[in-house]
Task: inverse folding
DNA sequence: GAGATTC
DNA sequence: ATCTCA
C-alpha cells in the first residue's frame, strides 16, 4: 500500500524551488529548477548521455546579471525574487542560515522566512515543513483553502479570498487537531484531491474522516471526533 | 480587496 | 503566490 510522505529536503533547494512555484504549474517549475542547476550548479557527472548538476550555491544566484539572465529564459518576475533572496540571505545572514533555522521554533523560522523577497506565508510554510523539520507547518494554498472550507470549516465558505487571517485560522485548525502531524495531514488533503490519486484507496480524501467516499463526504457529520489519522503515516529522509 | 506579474 | 496600490 502506498502512503503519503513528507520528505526532508535540502533547505536551499526547497526555498528557491518554492519561490519559483508562485502562480505557476509543476512542469514549468521543474523546468525552471533544472535551468538553475544547469546554468549555475556544479557539474556532478553523467549517466548515459544525461548530465547532472547540483543545485547552485546562493553566492552564484545573487546579482543583477543573474536576474537579467533568468528573465531572458522565462522566469518572469521570479527572476528578481531569486537573485534578491540570495543576496538578502548572504548579506543579512550567511550561507548556512537556512540549515540553522532547523533548530529554531516554527514561529521564528516562519517569521524569518517571510522577511525574504518573494516569500510569503505559504512558501514559508512549504520550506518549514519540507526542509526545516517543522511538521506543524500547514501550507495553505487555494486548493487546501477550498477543501478545508467545504469539508472542515463551513464558516469559511463565504470568504472571498485567502487572506492572512483566514490562512492563520486554517493552519491553527489543523494544528489543534493534529499537532505535530498537521503538516502531514495537509499533505494527505492535498494529495487526496489530486485527480491521479482519486482512485488510490489508501490515501483518499475521505480517509481523514471516519468513513465513506469523497462524493458523500458533504452529508457526513462534521464533528472533529470523527477525524482519523489512522495507520498510514509515513516519513522519509530522502527521495 | 483588486489588479499586475511570467508563460 | 506575492506584491503593490488604494
Result:
Amino acid at each position: 500500500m502506498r502512503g503519503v510522505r513528507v520528505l526532508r529536503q535540502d533547505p536551499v533547494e526547497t526555498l528557491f524551488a518554492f519561490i519559483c512555484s508562485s502562480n505557476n504549474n509543476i512542469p514549468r517549475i521543474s523546468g525552471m529548477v533544472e535551468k538553475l542547476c544547469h546554468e549555475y550548479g556544479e557539474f556532478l557527472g553523467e549517466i548515459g548521455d544525461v548530465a547532472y548538476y547540483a543545485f547552485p550555491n546562493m553566492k552564484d544566484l545573487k546579482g543583477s546579471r543573474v536576474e537579467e539572465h533568468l528573465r531572458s529564459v522565462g522566469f518572469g518576475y521570479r527572476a528578481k525574487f531569486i537573485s534578491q533572496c540570495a543576496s538578502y540571505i548572504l548579506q543579512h545572514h550567511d550561507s548556512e542560515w537556512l540549515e540553522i533555522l532547523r533548530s529554531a521554533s516554527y514561529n521564528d523560522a516562519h517569521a524569518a522566512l517571510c522577511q525574504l523577497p518573494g516569500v510569503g506565508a505559504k512558501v514559508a510554510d512549504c520550506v518549514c515543513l519540507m526542509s526545516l523539520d517543522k511538521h506543524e507547518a500547514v501550507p495553505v494554498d487555494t486548493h487546501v483553502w477550498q477543501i478545508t472550507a467545504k469539508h472542515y470549516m463551513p464558516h469559511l465558505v463565504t470568504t472571498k479570498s485567502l487572506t492572512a487571517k483566514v490562512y492563520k485560522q486554517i493552519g491553527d485548525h489543523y494544528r489543534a487537531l493534529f499537532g505535530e502531524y498537521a503538516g502531514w495531514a495537509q499533505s494527505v488533503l492535498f494529495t487526496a484531491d489530486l485527480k491521479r490519486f482519486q482512485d488510490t484507496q489508501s490515501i483518499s480524501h475521505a480517509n481523514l474522516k471516519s468513513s465513506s467516499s469523497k462524493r458523500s463526504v458533504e452529508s457526513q457529520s462534521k464533528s472533529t471526533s470523527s477525524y482519523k489519522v489512522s495507520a498510514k503515516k509515513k516519513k522519509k529522509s530522502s527521495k
